[in-house]
Design brief:
Elements (H helix, E strand, L loop, with lengths): L3 H17 L4 H10 L3 H25 L5 H20 L8 H23 L4 H6 L2
Helix pairs in contact: 3-4, 3-5, 4-5
């Protein structure tokens, strides 16, 4: 059984290998642009970000009572997701640094939304999800 520390290390290594290994961000964007796939990727990223925000709003509406910190966390997740959904559709394509911020904020928002519902799960279900 893996521990949380080893899981974090493994996740960090996987993200680093994916982000820094292989072609650069610009080479990947060029590849997608040359095959007319960039619009599809932008749409897919926007849809996923929109659904993350929708999930946060759904949790906010359907789980009651929620403490104020949990409500704030879900609202922040929804706002961040809405920002990224619009950002990937409007303006120039995000650069490598902005894409890294997108990945980080998305992971944080998913974790934040998940932690908002952990308290409502049964103790055995909570242990099973770890």
């Amino acid at each position: 059984m893996t521990t949380r520390a080893s899981l974090r290390t493994t996740l960090t290594e996987l993200v680093s290998a994916w982000w820094f290994g292989g072609p650069t961000y610009d080479e990947r964007i060029t590849y997608l642009r040359n095959r007319s796939l960039l619009g599809l990727i932008r749409a897919a990223v926007s849809i996923c970000a929109f659904l993350l925000g929708l999930m946060s709003i759904g949790l906010l509406i359907n789980i009651a009572p929620l403490s104020t910190p949990v409500q704030v966390r879900l609202v922040v997740c929804a706002v961040v997701a809405a920002f990224w959904a619009v950002r990937w559709q409007v303006g120039p394509l995000p650069g490598a640094r902005e894409a890294a911020v997108f990945v980080a904020t998305s992971i944080i928002a998913i974790y934040g939304a998940r932690r908002s519902t952990t308290r409502w799960a049964s103790p055995s279900a909570s242990r099973a999800s770890r």
